[in-house]
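When time allows, look over one protein, given below as sequence and tokens. The question is which stretches look regular and which look disordered:
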Amino acid sequence: MSNYQVGQKGNGTRAGVKTWGKMLFYIVIGGVVGGTASMLILILRETGGFTGLDGIYEEMLKWMPAVQTAAFLILFLPSLVYYIRAARGMKRMYSDEEDEQNDQDQGKAMLISSTNIIVEFLLFGLAADPDYDGMMVSVGLFFVFTIICCIQQALLVFQIKRRTPIMKGDPLSWNFQKEWEGSMDEATKMITYRSGYKAYLVVQKGQLLFSVLAVIGRMLLSTGAFPVIISCGLWLVGNTVYTKNAMKNKLE
């Protein structure tokens, strides 16, 4: 065996030991964090700490329509400002710097609008309580605000298409994402794929954390099995879709 082969074998062994060491470290850290969280939950339950949280929730329900409206306006107005600024910038666009600024404004508007929809879903979920007298009002506000956000996002897509004519796709079509991706140039696709992979890694770690918290909640707070099923189910779907597409792309 040559010195090079011996060196390669030694490097492989050290890399394997390092990998197993990292796994053991993460397992220990996970155990410490999980144990600490369990102890804190037990302490809060024994001392009545969750009673205060129930009181906050009940008080929030009383003002839920106002909370929904305030949350919508706080997020909608900045996204509208970015949309208008991008529209004005397109009229006077003369340089690459101005084009980049318009792209940033449109991206921020889309991000804030998407966040607005998520927040409205969250508040709608909190208000979906059969014992809450104002539930139907909250449901109505949820649909109105969500529709407004969807219209805003469609207008943003049309604005982006005017700035970048090569982009194709109707935001009201079921095949919009596929058509939009197909019209991207290679540089834009690479940015999208890298961003998607980073998002996948973050979601994988988040799903692990949420699954652990769901199990702890079931054991100590009687939250039931449904949160565990949902969290692990989403984790499984994300992992399966990513692996399937990775294998498919390798074969192409």
The mean pLDDT is 77. Helices lie at 3-47, 49-62, 64-91, 96-127, 135-163, 176-182, 186-220, 226-251.
